Amino acid sequence: MKEEERSNQKRKRPRHRKARTQKSSSNPKDSDDHQVQVSKKIDEDEEISKGTSRSSAFLDKMRARLSGGHFRMINEKLYTCTGSEALNYFKEDPTLFNMYHTGYQEQMSHWPEQPINIVINWLKDRSPSLLVADFGCGDARLARNVKNKVFSFDLVSNDPSVVACDMSNTPLDSLSIDVAVFCLSLMGTNFPNYLQEAHRVLKPSGWLLIAEVKSRFDPNTGGADPNTFSKAICELGFTSVSKDFSNKMFILLYFKKKEKKSLKKTEIDWPELKPCLYKRR
Ligand SMILES: C[S@@+](CC[C@H](N)C(=O)[O-])C[C@H]1O[C@@H](n2cnc3c(N)ncnc32)[C@H](O)[C@@H]1O
């Protein structure tokens, strides 16, 4: 074949294909088929997208279950070890701290009221010159919501304002603080050491505020007797000012530091505080 003929044939082929396409689209029967095919394709696409959203919902559910499981595991660990063990636990893997706090916030979102907000309002009713220590501050919400100078302590610091330490041993000077706050943070098995540390740093007549999970103080379900707990704190060197049991989820205890310690710490009979274990939702 001559070169000229070959190139003519090449040029003809696309015109032929175009003609066939035009023919098929102008035939009503072909057009119906086409519409059926198009609607079939749409149905298929919808099925695929439904399937995709179903499987992504399933994956989301699985992820939530997994992170809920991780939260419960870390939470149980914190309630069954000492503060220094908890500090090492998070030092080895600080990501566990964020995992814990994501789960904690999720749990808190189901509480009608958050105890930290009651502490915030209590402080707002008092002088902003009071120096505050927040023991086990979490995301330091207290410091962010009051005018007072707040020294925030937790096992891990995700914010420059938070000092990472075991709160049984803070860098605060003795007799330097007006208000010591423990909001759901008496977790370690050595919790009396945290209260002794609060006693050390508080000025005479300084305030000790404790918010704790109510179930830990329900003797009917293995919880401590709140009066025994309160008595032990008084023996450490505090006077009980008031108790608030009105909330369904937590109790609030308010103490003031006495001028002198009543008993040596070894002579105090502390009750055991049972862990607060969250149920799977
Ligand atoms: C249940 S969270 C409460 C956080 C915050 N107070 C609130 O009310 O939102 C308890 C916090 O106490 C901290 N914590 C427990 N034991 C501690 C310890 N020995 N030293 C410092 N922080 C501790 C935990 O890491 C956690 O962030």
Quick check: average pLDDT?
86
Spans of at least 5 consecutive residues whose pLDDT stays below 50 are 1-8, 10-29
> Could you tell me the radius of gyration in angstroms?
33 Å
Bound molecules: S-adenosylmethionine
By DSSP, the count of extended strands is: 7
Assembly type? single chain
CATH-defined fold name of the domain at 83-257: Rossmann fold
Number of helices: 8
- The rounded distance between the terminal residues' Cα atoms is 80 Å
Query: How can the largest sheet be summarized?
Result: 7 strands, mixed
Helix and strand sequence: HHHHHEHEEEHEHEE
The CATH C-level name of the domain at 83-257 is Alpha Beta
List the strand order in the largest sheet.
3-2-1-4-5-7-6
Q: What fraction of residues sit in β-strands?
A: 15-25%
Task: Give the helix proportion (percent range).
Answer: 40-55%
Question: Structural class of the secondary elements?
Answer: alpha/beta
Task: Give the name of the CATH superfamily of the domain at 83-257.
Answer: Vaccinia Virus protein VP39
Second CATH tier, the architecture of the domain at 83-257: 3-Layer(aba) Sandwich
Global morphology: elongated
3D architecture notes:
With 281 residues, the protein is α/β, with parallel strands linked by helices. The chain has a domain at 83-257: 3-Layer(aba) Sandwich (Rossmann fold), CATH 3.40.50. 49% of the residues lie in helices and 16% in strands. The chain is built from eight helices and seven strands, in the order H-H-H-H-H-E-H-E-E-E-H-E-H-E-E. It has helices at residues 3-26, 28-79, 83-92, 95-108, 115-124, 141-145, 191-201, 226-237; strands at residues 132-135, 150-154, 162-164, 177-183, 202-213, 238-244, 250-257. Strands 3-2-1-4-5-7-6 form a seven-stranded mixed β-sheet, sandwiched between helices. Helix 6 (141-145) links the parallel strand 1 (132-135) and strand 2. Helix 2 (28-79) crosses helix 4. The relative contact order is 0.10. S-adenosylmethionine is lined by residues 78, 83, 86, 104, 116, 136-138, 141, 153-155, 166-167, 183-185, 187-188.
